[in-house]
Amino acid sequence: MYSIPTVTLNNGVTMPQLGFGVFQVPDEETSAAVASALRAGYRSIDTAAIYGNERGVGQALADSGIARDELFVTTKLWNADQGYDAALAAFDASLGKLGLDHVDLYLIHWPTPERDLYPDTWRALEKLYADGRARAIGVSNFQPAHLERLLGTATVVPAVNQIELHPGLQQTELRAFHAEHGIATEAWSPLAQGAVLKDDAITAIAASHGKSPAQVVLRWHLQTGNVVIPKSVTEARIRENLDVFGFELSAQELEALTALDRDLRTGPHPDTLN
Question: What is the pTM of this model?
Answer without folding.
Answer: 0.97
